[in-house]
UniProtKB/TrEMBL annotation:
Taxonomic superkingdom: Bacteria
Gene that this sequence comes from: xerA
Pfam families the UniProt entry points to: Phage_int_SAM_4, Phage_integrase
Gene3D superfamilies (alphabetical): 1.10.150.130, Intergrase catalytic core
Tyr recombinase domain mapped to chain residues: 151-325
Annotated Core-binding (CB) domain residues: 51-130
Organism: Gracilibacillus marinus
Subcellular location: Cytoplasm
Protein name: Site-specific tyrosine recombinase/integron integrase
Keywords: Cell cycle, Cell division, Chromosome partition, Cytoplasm, DNA integration, DNA recombination, DNA-binding
Major location (coarse): cytoplasm
Keyword presence, Oxidoreductase: no
């Protein structure tokens, strides 16, 4: 039975014979034996090989943290890669394109959007491993993204917005609805908004968005009116705009805001799925329908790529009809 040194020598010799033509295997084996006699080599067990992926994931997360990615993004990376590891249980260097395709097709309930998100994480992870020279090639690079159905973001109509407003039972709920709609903030951006970030004279606020980038968002007079009422009456001295209603009045979590919006929505007859992000869709859609320039909406939403904002560029049938009458010469 071969010891670990002999196994390593044979493996190195095989690789060398592939890379170098006319290699003298006898001399190579003798030289390797001479070198390896100075070392005590132990071959990793199958379990040790399988468990090396979490170690690589930790290195990846640490590197991305140094690049300034948000904790929310890092948590998303960790969750996705942990799911991949539980499915595969394979040494990182042995993972191939087939493995990734099997994983992405393993759950029939995953939508094309979910699969695309998972694939994006895997491409980023294995691309980083390749750049760090931990692996020789990215096994996810040849996997194509699934075709996405063309769906327009579902916002709320003006009447539906009024129904939600009228369904609020206190200033906290009303301020929340108005702030989400007026600023177009993402949920995490709203959660982390501090009172000191708000310029009450200019009806604006500085927020930190995706990629740790700062931008300015704006309030309407109506939203600022309700926000001031809420801030003036709330208890505690939290530095954050929206805090809990009980001592010690900590910053609200994203889940708390989701639950609160669900409560407001339950009081209405609106059939749509009401969630925090729908107000962002609604604000962008209403702005575009009222004639706002695409570039302006892009900067207000904090989109790096104009194509991301382009999904809001659809217009109502009535607006298209009026534009046709106005601009087409008979």
């Amino acid at each position: 039975m071969q010891n670990d040194n002999s196994k390593l020598m044979n493996e190195v010799s095989t690789v060398a014979s592939i890379l170098v033509k006319d290699v003298d295997e006898t001399k190579l084996m003798l030289r390797l034996e001479e070198i390896l006699s100075n070392y005590d080599i132990k071959r990793k067990t199958e379990l040790e090989l399988e468990e090396d992926l979490p170690e690589k994931v930790e290195l990846f997360i640490d590197a991305k943290r140094l690049e300034g990615l948000s904790n929310l993004t890092l948590q998303g990376y960790w969750i996705e890669l942990n799911m991949f590891h539980k499915f595969l249980r394979k040494a990182t260097v042995q993972i191939n394109t087939v493995d990734i395709r099997k994983y992405l097709s393993s759950n029939s309930e995953w939508s094309p959007g979910t699969i695309d998100k998972k694939l994006s994480v895997l491409k980023t992870f294995f691309g980083w491993l390749m750049n760090e020279e931990i692996i020789l090639k990215n096994p996810a690079s040849k996997v194509k993204s699934p075709k996405q159905p063309k769906r327009l973001p579902k916002g709320l109509g003006i009447e539906e917005m009024e129904i939600l407003r009228e369904s609020c039972v206190d200033n906290r709920e009303r301020a929340l609805i108005e702030t989400l709609y007026a600023t177009g903030c993402r949920l995490a951006e709203l959660v982390n908004m501090k009172i000191t970030d708000i310029n009450f004279n200019e009806n604006s606020a500085k927020i930190i968005g995706k990629g740790n980038k700062e931008r300015v968002v704006y309030f309407t007079f109506k939203s600022m009116y309700h926000l001031k009422k809420y801030i003036n009456e709330r208890k505690g001295n939290s530095e954050y705009v929206f805090c809990s209603i009980r001592h010690p009045y900590n910053k609200v979590t994203g889940r708390s805001i989701e639950r609160l919006i669900n409560k407001i929505s339950a009081r209405t007859s609106i059939k749509k799925n009401i969630h925090p992000h729908i107000f962002r869709h609604t604000m962008a859609t209403h702005m575009m329908e009222n004639g706002a320039e695409l570039a302006d909406v892009q900067h207000i939403l904090g989109h790096d790529n104009p194509s991301t904002t382009l999904v809001y560029s659809h217009v109502s049938e009535e607006r298209k009809k009026q534009a046709h009458k106005r601009f087409l010469v008979s």
